[in-house]
Design a protein that fits this description.
430 residues; five-stranded mixed beta sheet
Length: 430
Amino acid sequence: MYESLLLLDGTLQDGSRVDLTVADGRIRCIAPAAGTADPARIVVESARFGDAVRTGTVAHETAIDLGGRLVLPALVNGHAHLDKTFVGSDWQPHRPGATVAERVSAERAIRDELDVPVAERADALAAAMIGFGTGTVRTHVDIDPAVGLTSLDAVLDLRERLRGTLRVQVVAFPQSGIIASPGVSALLEEALRAGADAIGGLDPVGFDQDAEGHLDTVFGLAARYGVGVDIHLHDLGEPAQRQYGMIAERTRRHGLSGRVVVSHAYGLGSIGEDEARRAGAQFASAGVAVMTNGPAGPMPPVLALRAEGATVFSGSDNIRDAWWPYGDGDMLAVARQVAYQSNFRTDDELGVALDLVTASAARALGVHDYGVHEGAVADLLVIDSPSPAAAVAAHPPSRLVLHGGRIVAAQLASAHVLAPMTLDAMATRP
């Protein structure tokens, strides 16, 4: 491993051209761009999902001339389901269902038919996410009487194997409900003891039909084990508003400010903006964040919620699974979808969409030392794009991904690498 990495002539989000020095996994120095390094002291290391390719002669520094390309913090996927994906297996035709309960039933049937194990499918999707520039992903993992902790064990093992390339947070998720599925409460507790990072919930009213019992179980376990809460909430209208208040109250009561998420929050898009703003202010006061991925339900009003001080962020949600046949793991595509559905057009609005998959998502997930500044962990994405707004609006043709200061994916179409091998060639090596 090189002792340090020089990223020369990169463009930051504010438009400034800089040279970045990375050492010991962190950004140690950011200085105005000063030109090209001496090729005599170059070594390049690349990796594709953990398999290193080394070229050149080892020296003390590696330098890559970025040629003015945009340097962003690595993308954050705030909500995924690695255990559910069909990526890495044969195409599965979608089986529709009119309600959440019907979709859960269809998913169980498909799950029993798949012949590719969770570990392989989750691994394949995680590899794609890394290639697109994701540095952190929060994945919800099904916990129910049929699957038990089997999927959780596979994803916890993946979390360990990917420590050098992808930061994985695991949410124990009661996809079959808690009250409606006896025994799940005990399984959720086992999942937390096994190493899950947070506890999930699912439609306390719409699915479990017992908001008090459902939320008491979820928040009780969170308080007991010192973990965060992330609740799927698809309910609409007045029932959703009532649950928002219950979640905010429990967040305060259990001292979980900054550690609670309402995912999807379709209800916020089903009520008037004034009511949504009041809910946003309530969330901001309690320290509850909102996750939206855009599709499949009414969109929360992103700008209105942010204006009230609420943290809003994005995730991919389902990718090619029983719930959703779309997706590839690219969080810039998710940002574009959210921007499109929110009717974002100006550069500032497109910048908000990018923030939802970078800084705001990192804040909601408690990712420390994040960003492009001196002292930050060197989780970085370098892309061929003239601006942050353009990165959201149009698919960048090439990317360079660093995790903890180490190159983990290299797909730059025409970058000048100060070494015997171009990034083009590195990307095509096995």
